[in-house]
């Protein structure tokens, strides 16, 4: 997609973090914005902020784990602007701890938002784009699915999150191949950020009441939360940096988007272990102090 002006962007998780920065860059490029977020007060404030800057923008409270709400988002976008060119399936939440300690509610919440949110976005918006491409040879569309470096690696005590993000990477790679069979006008990318200062480590603030665990967190869950808080808050690459990288990738039709390409060394190590059929390597091989701290905290 070389031209952004007057195009329509739909952004889930659009009121904060990566989503808000996607919206900011879209507005600067003259795009029409459709913002979705589960946190309605923050969404309303974000919509008002961009309207005050002169952007054409609407917002709709959306729980992306609910197919009917994603469909309502698509309907609102089509009613307001008549087409959709760029979709950011970006909403995401996080939960940690040992995989055998994650509850059914943990899995339902994380997979509902991180995976089913993307599934619903792909299933509902892709046909709209393909139909627009069929009607207009000049139409250009692009879908960006937010995964994570955790979709290419498997750090310990992050199992439920890892599983959700690996699935998003797989879904998006498959989407890339499927689109290539039927069109040259609609593309896709997968965003795999590492630790970036956003609200992801505090996403439990928006956890639905019906999916909150009754039991107190386990030791592994508390340790994982503390590690996540520290890693996310200390990140040097900003959400604005990631948004710029993402728009550049959409412009250049690049599929993989990395905030921290240096982390690919660990991905390469993992791939080599798979090919060699050797046991998985230490996820913290380059940072033994992190592993030592984890072991001390978990066994202490």
Can you give a write-up of this model?
With 300 residues, the protein is an alpha/beta fold. It has a single domain (8-299), classed as Rossmann fold (3-Layer(aba) Sandwich). Helices cover 50% and strands 12% of the residues. It contains nine helices and seven strands, in the order βαβαβαβαβαβααβαα. The protein has helices spanning 17-28, 40-52, 67-81, 104-135, 159-182, 219-233, 239-252, 264-276, 288-299; strands spanning 8-12, 32-37, 57-61, 86-89, 141-146, 186-192, 256-258. A seven-stranded parallel beta sheet has the order 3-2-1-4-5-6-7, with helices on both faces. Strand 4, helix 4 (104-135) and strand 5 (141-146) form a beta-alpha-beta unit. The longest helix is centred in the middle third of the chain and has 32 residues, at 104-135. The model has no long low-confidence stretch (mean pLDDT 95).
Itemize the secondary structure elements and their pairings:
Blueprint: E1 8-12, H1 17-28, E2 32-37, H2 40-52, E3 57-61, H3 67-81, E4 86-89, H4 104-135, E5 141-146, H5 159-182, E6 186-192, H6 219-233, H7 239-252, E7 256-258, H8 264-276, H9 288-299
Parallel strand pairs: 1-2, 1-4, 2-3, 4-5, 5-6, 6-7
What are the salient characteristics of this protein?
alpha/beta; globular; 7-stranded parallel sheet
Q: What would you say about this model in short?
A:
The chain is an alpha/beta fold. It has helices spanning 17-28, 40-52, 67-81, 104-135, 159-182, 219-233, 239-252, 264-276, 288-299; strands at 8-12, 32-37, 57-61, 86-89, 141-146, 186-192, 256-258. It has one domain (8-299): NAD(P)-binding Rossmann-like Domain (Rossmann fold).
């Amino acid at each position: 997609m070389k031209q952004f002006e007057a195009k329509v962007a739909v952004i889930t998780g659009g009121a904060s973090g990566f989503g808000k920065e996607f919206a900011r860059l879209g507005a600067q490029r003259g795009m029409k914005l459709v913002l979705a977020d589960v946190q309605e007060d923050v969404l309303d404030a974000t919509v008002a902020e961009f309207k005050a800057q002169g952007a054409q923008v609407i917002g709709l409270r959306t729980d992306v784990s609910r197919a009917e709400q994603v469909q309502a988002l698509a309907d609102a976008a089509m009613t307001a602007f008549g087409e959709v060119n760029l979709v950011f399936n970006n909403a995401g939440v996080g939960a940690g701890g040992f995989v055998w300690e994650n509850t059914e509610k943990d899995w339902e919440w994380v997979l509902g938002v991180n995976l089913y949110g993307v599934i619903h976005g792909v299933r509902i918006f892709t046909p709209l784009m393909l139909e627009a491409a069929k009607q207009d040879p000049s139409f250009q569309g692009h879908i960006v699915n937010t995964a994570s470096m955790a979709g290419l690696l498997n750090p310990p005590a992050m199992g439920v999150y890892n599983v959700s993000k690996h699935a998003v990477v797989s879904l998006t790679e498959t989407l890339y191949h499927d689109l290539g069979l039927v069109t040259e006008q609609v593309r896709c990318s997968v965003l795999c950020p590492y630790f970036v200062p956003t609200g992801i480590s505090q996403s439990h603030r928006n956890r639905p009441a019906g999916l909150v665990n009754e039991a107190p967190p386990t030791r592994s869950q508390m340790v994982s939360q503390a590690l996540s808080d520290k890693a996310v808050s200390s990140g040097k690459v900003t959400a604005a940096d990631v948004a710029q990288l993402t728009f550049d990738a959409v412009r250049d039709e690049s599929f993989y988007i990395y905030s921290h390409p240096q982390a690919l060394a660990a991905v390469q190590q993992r791939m080599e272990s798979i090919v060699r059929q050797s046991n998985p390597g230490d996820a913290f091989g380059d940072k033994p102090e992190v592993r030592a701290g984890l072991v001390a905290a978990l066994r202490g």
